[in-house]
Specification:
4 helices; 3 strands; about 10% strand; disordered N terminus
Length: about 110
Amino acid sequence: MGMRSFNSTKETEESSRIGYQLQQQNASAKYPIVMIPGFVTSGLEVWQAKACMKKHFRQRIWGSASMASLFFGDRQCWREHLTLNRETGMDPLQIRVRSAQGFEAADNFIAT
């Protein structure tokens, strides 16, 4: 097994991905995949939001004690920010929610 070249092209990297390989075999999705982040050690933060969530910029809306107050305060807004675009599978317009990075991902679990 040889080492990958530092000069590998994007096409080489793409062809090594399982999704690309399955596409080449004419495979298609049968069921949607729902990914639910871990409650304790994962956190999702708002990086871009609609008006109802703007005051929570760079704060967690998933994986924190304050998540319950956000959920019960405005369920529709909270749900809208945790839902992907149904057609593209990407972020909805005007919304970006990203995972917390590094040790911050677990700091609410082990706060002290």
